[in-house]
What we know:
mainly beta
Amino acid sequence: MILNGSASALDVKVENLTQAKVVLAFSYLDEVDNEWVVDGWYNVDSKQTAEIKLPSNNDIYYLYAEFSNGKKLEGGKGSISVKVDNQAFLYKQGKAPKNFTKKVNFVRARGNEGNALVRIK
């Protein structure tokens, strides 16, 4: 799935080198409202590459991933704890819908001049 933003976007290339399907959620500084948002889910099949355009002109973003084999990509230094749902979602950080009960830790990541690479091995 590709989210089309404006001319200023953070282009995230996701290379899934595993045998598992991966679903990803991001938190990024939305350039329109200048507020942090939480956005999920983006699907990347096994052994596939996806280009995801996040509408942000900030190279800092946060990432959380779940794999079809039960593994997760989460946590670490500088991580943030936010709520996610089983269905697609988009909300302003700190303002999750009340029915969102699953809290996870997003990994802090950084792009370079509007480009980021996430290589999952």
